[in-house]
Structures are given as structure tokens and as C-alpha cells.
Amino acid sequence: MSRIGKKPIILPDNVTIEINNDTINAKGALGSDSLLIPDGISLNIDNKILYVNKNGADNDKSLSALHGLSRALFANLITGVTKGFSKDLEIIGVGYRATQQNKDIVLQLGFSHNITFSPPVGVTIEVISQTKINIKGINKQKVGQVAADIRSLRPPEPYKGKGIRYVGEYVRKKAGKAGKK
């Protein structure tokens, strides 16, 4: 049985949960979001505690994996509508910078042209300084995907470390031709 799936989810006071046939809807201070409930998984709410149960045999490995995954996704749903998620990126390189234009950001990354990046609905991008970008939203998957999309525009290269990276990411540097002897 899934250890993570067994853990109950404590619902904060400002969150309302609605469970329909195959979806769970959560409303909180930052907005509302919904998720599909997979087959074989059932939800029970008792005294502001959400329990995720699996309907099936205990020795079914795929259902146990789905049990833990579903519990983690439901916990992220509740965390998203209460606190939200954010990722920070930093731009390293001479002449590399970002500027804000309404909801979009314009990136100068050493190409012959500027790159304009528009975030999807539910995700906000904020340029803190010319070399720092903050991505916020209530959906953890969307926030992570937007951060990965921006990073993929100019990933950090291993010789000088120039490019876009997550704050705190370690880029292993390689020796150039001179250091190969």
C-alpha cells in the first residue's frame, strides 16, 4: 500500500472543496482549480480532513502508485489555491537581460532578435531586476512548465555558465581547450 497515499490532507479554513462524480474542485484565497479523480480512487472529507482511498486489491502495484500520485496532486491543488507556487530564474551573461511589457517579458539573450514570451492563463511572470525573473501561479505543473520553457530559450552552457538557470542551480563547468593538456 502507498505510504504517501495513506497520509491525510488537512484542509485550511479558507478552502472549500466540492467533489463531483469524477472531479474535485478547490476554491481558496488565490483562486480556484480542479482535477480529475482517476478510476479506482475515492475521496472522503471528515472534519476538514481529506482522505484518499483506493478501491481495489492491496497487491495491485499500478493502483498503489496511482494512489500516492493522486494524493500528491490533491495536496498540491490545495496548496496552490491557498499559498500558490513560484519559481525564480536568473539570467547570467554579458548583455543578457529581461524587461517587462504588460504581462509578457522581452528577453535579450545574445541572439540577433529579442524574444517575447507570453505566459499562459493562470501564470504571472514578474521581472524583479534585469537578471531575475519570478514565475507565480496556483497550478504547480503550469508554473514548472513555464519556467522550463523560459530556461530552454538559452540553457546554461558548460564553459562559461552563460544562460538562464534556476536560482540555486549548480552548473558544472568544463575546462576549455587550454585545460585539456
Q: What's the N-to-C terminus distance?
A: 55 Å
The averaged pLDDT comes out at 92
Percent of residues in helical segments? 10-25%
Poorly predicted parts: none
What are the key terms here?
single chain, 181 residues, alpha+beta, Outer Surface Protein A, domain 3, four-stranded antiparallel β-sheet, three-stranded antiparallel β-sheet, 3 helices
Structure description:
The protein is an alpha+beta fold and 181 residues long. The protein has two domains: 3-82, Ribosomal protein L6 (Outer Surface Protein A, domain 3, Alpha-Beta Complex), CATH 3.90.930; 85-166, Ribosomal protein L6 (Outer Surface Protein A, domain 3, Alpha-Beta Complex). The protein has three helices and 13 strands, in the order αββββββαββββββαβ. The chain has helices at residues 3-6, 61-82, 140-151; strands at 9-10, 16-19, 23-27, 32-36, 41-45, 49-54, 85-92, 97-101, 104-108, 115-117, 123-129, 132-137, 163-166. The strands form four sheets. It has a four-stranded antiparallel β-sheet, covered by helices on one side. Strands 1-6-5 form a three-stranded antiparallel β-sheet. A three-stranded antiparallel β-sheet has the order 2-3-4, with helices on one face. A hairpin with a 3-residue loop joins strand 2 and strand 3. The longest helix is centred in the middle third of the chain and has 22 residues, at 61-82.
